[in-house]
Amino acid sequence: MFEERLYLRAPHPLDAAVPYQVVGGGQRTAMPGIAPITTRFHEHAFMLSVEGRGQIEVDSVVRFAEPGDIAWINTAGRYAHGCAPGAPGWAYLWLGVGTGAGLNAAYEMAGAEDEPVFIGTLGPEIVAIFERGIHGIRLSGPVAPAVISAAISDIVAEVLGRRSRRHGLVGAEPFGGRLGGVLERIRADIDWPWTISDMARLAALSPSQFHRTFKQRFGVSPITWLRHERINRARRLLANRALSVAEIGRLCGYVDPYHFSRDFRRLSGGSPTQFRAGKGW
């Protein structure tokens, strides 16, 4: 079980340059007999269950979190989380996000209010994502906002992927299912030189309709989303040292190594080589 670690983050001058602003994070062990956390904030909380068993309650509906599961809670609503009855404790890593592009829309699309626990396996990759975000809170240099925001982007992609694989992407808007299928198709061929027209054809929409519907749903343009998806894929591939940086760029849709390095630096706060050397910072 963890010792308590709590890190709160002060606003940074470059926060406006990145999609997500984290307000705090750390690690915690909820012990039996300790009252669950119920304090309301105006933020989203992501919790990675690492050891033991947790109990998540949202609007009086109870779910349980096992190691590897991720809980996503909007703390502005009614909720409670703590150690599950009969468990020796519950250890988890957590990150609180104050604001973020499309975060509320992603929360709704993932069905997190009804099913706040995203079932998964506890692997080193997902632990590293949370730890990278927590570490970023302690950084003070110009890369800090980008490092933190990249971690949140990876977590959102992970939970949406988990829910999509289990149930399919859902949403109240008419083109929700259609957009969900488009996202999966693009991810499967991320190296293709996608254009708005290509994406719109997959969704059976005009380019203008597709762009408008996509931005309403996800809070960013299709091209911005594609850039983030490509860089997220690149970060995962950089763990494979058998691949050169240029090869990874091509696999992620960047024919020009300079363009790849420039996009990677803008979205991750450093070059691909620096990211690899620092093992994800």
Which SSEs are present, and which pair or pack?
Blueprint: E1 5-8, E2 20-30, E3 44-52, E4 54-58, E5 61-65, E6 70-74, E7 79-83, E8 90-100, H1 103-109, E9 117-118, H2 124-137, H3 144-167, H4 176-188, H5 196-203, H6 207-218, H7 222-237, H8 245-251, H9 257-268, H10 272-277
Antiparallel strand pairs: 1-2, 2-8, 3-6, 3-8, 4-5, 4-7, 6-9
Structure description:
- The chain folds into 2 domains: 5-167, Jelly Rolls; 176-277, Homeodomain-like (Arc Repressor Mutant, subunit A, Orthogonal Bundle).
- It is 42% helix and 20% strand.
- The protein contains 10 helices and 9 strands.
- The chain has helices spanning 103-109, 124-137, 144-167, 176-188, 196-203, 207-218, 222-237, 245-251, 257-268, 272-277; strands at residues 5-8, 20-30, 44-52, 54-58, 61-65, 70-74, 79-83, 90-100, 117-118.
- A hairpin with a 2-residue loop joins strand 4 (54-58) and strand 5 (61-65).
- Helix 2 packs antiparallel against helix 3 and helix 5 crosses helix 6 (207-218).
- The longest helix is centred in the middle third of the chain and has 24 residues, at 144-167.
- Mean pLDDT is 87; it is low at 168-176.
